[in-house]
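fwd from M.: "can u put these together and see what the complex looks like"

so here's what she sent:
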Amino acid sequence: MFESAELGHRIEKDVWEREVPALREALLDAQYDLVAAKKFPVVLLIAGVDGAGKSAVVATLNEWMDPRHIQTHGFDDPSEEELERPYMWRYWRALPPKGKVGIMDGSWYSWPILQRANGKIGNDRLDHDMELVRRFEQMLIDEGALVLKFWMHLSKDAQKRRLKKLEGDPKTRWRVTDRDWRHFKLYDTFREVSERALRHTSTGQAPWIVVEATDARYQKLTVGKILLEQLRARLDNPAPRAISVQAPPSITSIDGVNLLQRMDLTKKLDKAQYEKELEAFQGELALLTRHKNFRKHNVVCVFEGVDAAGKGGGIRRITQAIDARMCRIVPIAAPTEEERAQPYLWRFWRHLPVRGKVEIFDRSWYGRVLVERVEGFCSEADWMRAYGEINDFEAQMAQSGTILLKFWLAISKEEQLRRFEERQTTRFKRFKITDEDWRNREKWDTYETAICDMLERTSTEIAPWTLVESEDKFHGRIKILKTLCRRLEDAL
Amino acid sequence: MFESAELGHRIEKDVWEREVPALREALLDAQYDLVAAKKFPVVLLIAGVDGAGKSAVVATLNEWMDPRHIQTHGFDDPSEEELERPYMWRYWRALPPKGKVGIMDGSWYSWPILQRANGKIGNDRLDHDMELVRRFEQMLIDEGALVLKFWMHLSKDAQKRRLKKLEGDPKTRWRVTDRDWRHFKLYDTFREVSERALRHTSTGQAPWIVVEATDARYQKLTVGKILLEQLRARLDNPAPRAISVQAPPSITSIDGVNLLQRMDLTKKLDKAQYEKELEAFQGELALLTRHKNFRKHNVVCVFEGVDAAGKGGGIRRITQAIDARMCRIVPIAAPTEEERAQPYLWRFWRHLPVRGKVEIFDRSWYGRVLVERVEGFCSEADWMRAYGEINDFEAQMAQSGTILLKFWLAISKEEQLRRFEERQTTRFKRFKITDEDWRNREKWDTYETAICDMLERTSTEIAPWTLVESEDKFHGRIKILKTLCRRLEDAL
């Protein structure tokens, strides 16, 4: 894949001076159109070998365009804080919103390629990591991003010359480190590993663009021109060529029996028993979260359920038992403007806790396949792919040591009516009931289908759903606490 | 993912008797529309746990529809012949053509899941295999297939009951083997591994449909109804919902320099030297193909190049040196009707040789990104995704022990003209030149772009291209022989 980038491509100075002004003007125009339209983000990867002038390209792009609308991110070894999150966390944080260009100097490719080149991981693991990346980029594209991946390449000789030249000049000497020379010794291995990584991730929709880095003018002009072409094509043609997709099966259960209906909502606990068990489990939970191994993990609890199912009450019974400094509740309402400018999972990634913490999501990323599906806020293709994207998201959490619990709180339609009416008549509960709640109630059956699909498609071996019969609040709360304690006990 | 399939779903006999006749009629109608339209194939996977009545479902579908237009394939342990090919080979062979329904009883999932459940492979490897499968299914969908994946599920109790019942009845006893009971002991492991496999491969476009298998009527009616719904939707709406894709960068080299131009076509060999080297390399090749380790491999040579570049001559110099029984030339012309009814790689998969053989493709799967691209026989999205699909294809060959060589034979435009004219004036060479050759020649520059893209995107660490300067035939032929000998020597 690198042969075309070892030909000694170059651009003479006069060509450069003739072409750059027009290119800059056109790039600026395109950038302002991008900013004005705010329809999609541009994710620009500048990856490649050491000494290939990646930073210089990034600097030039910032010079050519309006840097106020460019977000540049450099990625070195992950920080302590970053190591406590899933691998992709810091890249999610760096994603540009719609209307902006995000330049990634170094990227999600560097770490796995380096690990493989150093022999720390094998090919199976590299392929697995590249697969994650492939799905991540596909998600970005499906969410509307323009993804451009540039690989800066130097032949072995060219790299050696480049490093020597940088070292020879007192002004640039600092840019060459021992690490660069160590990497150079691995050139052949690095090349082979990179080629493997590129092979797995060069797709029809996000192809790699390999650029020879021997001549800086050639390199920068190539990146600039391709960026312009792609940006212009996308701006001028907002509905680009299409791939057709098949509709998902609408038949879920031909005998009308489903998971929700089969829940035994008559399960009950009397008050005395409830208070005894509440005390016991809250005590146990307090101890578990103080366990010395707890600092190696974190806990993410997801609460979903129909309106008035008792999510708030369930959450409070957990927080009561945990040191307030280690616990946080994230209530999920409609996304903010900032959040709407990002892929839908972005606003959940940003909240992922460091180790030793408990994070409770009061509603969650499952909104995508519940309210967004039912209300038609996203297309069928969007929510169909969301199941897989959510499973990938949760797999990454699990892999990084997160203990993930997902509670579905269920009540009957009659019980919901009773609670709605109680909320309307009880003065201090009136804030809890809105017109929207009544509207959602009318779509009970449509929601039921969506809920069953969700439970079926996202209850996995790494993150199973716990169905909580909440008709009796006492029973529901104890089941939540008990499930949480058992999972913590198993994990610690 | 299996919770919804452990609820004891069932369909009463009267419902069954009422619904089946109408379903059969509708299925038959849909099937005949499918046969008449010949627009797409249906790939129907019946997978799942042992004893879940997979064969009975397959039998019922064959009974309900016209079995002449259904191709049913059962897959047990791979045969000797199959083991000598890449893992996916036997599944490629079993793909139904457009207009037909292909039912896969057992499938590409069985082997990796079983291997993982038995502890023979780890999770990384399982994930890697599932990724291959995911890409394969995506390719089928992109090529227009309707892919339906049914997973037949039994709870642990239900499976035990089922096996016992089959064993208890003299008529069905033979269907339960020791292997079934051994698998049953692994139920929990098998369930977890299956869930992992399903999680990785349940995509928005090819979602798994999990069906409870406790009640045969429920199971069959569910499969039948979903098949009908999906078939009808696709037949009635030939241009289903679409996902937009971005255009590939059209800029490849801003300084006009490319791989082809940089080839040194002045390389020459005089006749005496040629004859000496020809004898030496052909001798070496003859010995290498008789090497005892050669039986562990096979060789696939791909010959591509502009018209009159000397492919035939190069190929003959190889075949002269090899026992005719172990060597086969596959000339690739326009696809046959049978081949056009399949994904474009199908006609190459079918030719993959067993071990100990040399297979020479005179033109190849690269037609997709050359002639099909240039002539507009496929869409931009099609040839853009083809690079990755081809790389995956070649990776599978390499993994199964194939030594793959890809030769690009280059001559100058002037030399081509000279050879064309020679062919027209030399009586015994006239069959070699057609109007099409002249038409292709007019598109020299367009082809050059396509060729450079191809070389860049498909020259990989597992299957690099060899560029052969063929202006001088002697030089070209010797380079081919020498490259082949060196690769064989390295591999044996």
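replying to her w this: Chain B touches chain A through 79 residues (CB under 8 Å).
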